[in-house]
Amino acid sequence: MLQHTVGSPITKESRGDHCGIQHASHFRRAKLPRTKVVFLALFAFFLASLSVVSYADQKLEADRAKFKQAWQLVKSGRISAAKQSIKALESYPLYVYLRAAELRPKLQKPDNPPLEKFLADFEGTYPAESLRTDWLAWLATIKRWDVFLRFYRPQNDIALQCHHKTALLNTKQFDGLFRSILPLWTIGKSQPSACNPAFSFFETHEAFDDPIIWQRFRAAMNNNQPGLARYVAKKFSNSSAQTWSARWLEAHTNPHRVLSKSYLLEKDLIAKDVLFHALAKLARANFSAAEKHWVRISAAGELTPSDVNQGHKILAIAAGKAEDKNQIFYLDQVENSFADGTLESLRMRRGIQLRAWPELNRWTSGAPVDPKTSRLRWKYWHARSAELIDKNTEATKGFSVLASERDYYGFVAADKLGQAYQFNDRPIKPAESELLAFKAKPEIRRAQEFFELGMQIDANRQWRWAIRNFGKSDLETAALIASGWGWHNRAIATLGKARSYDDVNIRFPVIHQDAIAKNAKKRGLEDAVIFAIIRTESAFHAGARSSAGALGLMQLMPATGREAGRRIGLKIKKSSQLLAPSTNIAIGSSYLSSLINKYNGSFPMAAAAYNAGPHRVRQWRPKSNCIAADIWIDSIPFRETRRYVRTALFYYAVYQHRLGLDINRLQNLMQSIRPRNDVACTN
């Protein structure tokens, strides 16, 4: 919209020349100065723009009202009553959804011109592809393979993928068919019955051989599916394969017996699979028995260094999970280069819990092997373990690298060095033309319409569909747009999908500020504490419902909500009341305050209790001596709760920054954790 600033009033201009000659001004229009002409033209354009915008807004609101009415009609099965409204909404973004709903009852027709036209006109949209999927499934039931193939597009559903192979088979399109079935057959789990015709063709093909059978057998055994493996083993043609598959199956049912067999040391590659399967199975059930077998087998001198490390890794993981007294010894036996994500995670947690600082420092000396292992956590505990064994130069160097990171570990490292926190805010700034073009994308407009109509489930589904194939840059632009609509939880999730974490304003919105400030003051809390919990719990999704039944911004369980509400004079008759932001914040902040008071001001303990329950925090507290907060947090047995506490602390610091406050350092919230007898710590 154009904006104009009028600097000075318009003044009358002389309409005569004052030379004694009088003009017949009533016969012709006086000529206006050029500046006045330009101004009046712009002003007229401005008024016209207002009129156009106003009309567009009014039409959009009218279309939304018509859509809601038509949607209710089609959802209640009164499609004929909605026909006129649907026709009138052809230019409305959600028309495609109405049209799909109109066509769905007529889906079970093999020759279906209206549906075919719809699929052609709206190919790639969620409603069209949803209809396509359902129609293909029906076409498969009546074996109309010619129509099926004509309208088939790649599907995620395994049954439909197999139906596609069957359609090719029945229409004698054999080129490349065997190879295309291979990834469906070699999976380590049972496939739907729709795959049977394709699998029958596959298993009778001349290229079907024992190496292919081994792929599925191995996948089934590694996936703990011995029944499937037994079925697959019947297809081996080679007697050696039959023998070794039987041995492998016995290793699953009777590992103790198999581990005593001499054939485990044969040069056959399958022998190692059998050995390690039996060792892992027995180690989980009887660690000491597995240990004895391993000492004997490894002493025979027939194993490669890789084999030895594999055996040690199996025992290390079993010992760690069983909390065996020798777990640190076995965790230390595996060379770092042979570690995997499971071992790295176990080493980290057990090393911290058991204060095995020299070993932990050694285990974290290089980069982690598993890309999923947190690099920042890894670096922090390498530096922290160095500090705890008096390698102060190494510790300082490690903390210095971490202190530049916007992260829990970065902030705690900065505390160690007395350095300022680095928030590294880099806003997403696409070109204005790119932003406008993005907003005009039909799929984005459909998501916006559902959002504006308050149809949250449909909005989420449409949004996920719209961004499903976006790259990082497009996801960032989409997140910026969603944030501009006020759809904060979806903007946050979209940046997460993009693995883009540097636009602090989008990731950490400041909303519900009045309600948060009011309740923070009433409960003696900092605003940033409540913001941090809301951001951690629901990412500001007021309608959030967890699988466990927690509700709203602060994810209150109904029983907790009723009890905490009663204490502050709020009567909760229906669980749905907890979805109201004002009610949820009032009760949630009261409950949070009670936990912080319960734990003598310890935010880490209060956050752990908020996530996992006070009864578990009591179990996790040290039995006698105090523990440094960072050690206690990363010793929590529940992975989810460990992450939750670290995240809540991190978000607390970020929200202080977002609220423009002086930073209260995390070290001030991370006092040592008191033991179960609640005796105060001396440090």
Descriptive notes:
This protein has helices at residues 34-75, 79-88, 95-103, 113-121, 126-141, 145-151, 158-170, 177-185, 196-203, 210-222, 226-233, 239-253, 255-258, 269-285, 287-299, 305-322, 327-333, 341-353, 357-363, 375-388, 392-402, 408-417, 432-439, 442-452, 456-467, 472-485, 488-498, 504-507, 513-523, 527-537, 558-567, 581-598, 603-612, 614-620, 629-633, 639-658. It has 683 residues and is mainly alpha-helical. The protein is flat, with a radius of gyration of 34 Å. Residues 1-30 have low confidence and may be disordered.
Rg from Cα: 34 Å
Low-confidence stretches: 1-30
- The end-to-end span amounts to 62 Å
How does the major sheet shape up? none
Which overall shape is indicated by the principal axes computed on the Cα atoms? flat
Mean pLDDT: 92
Query: Hey, roughly how much beta strand do the residues contain?
Result: under 5%
Helix and strand composition category: mainly alpha
Number of helices: 36
**Beta-strand segment tally:** 0
Helix content: 55-70%
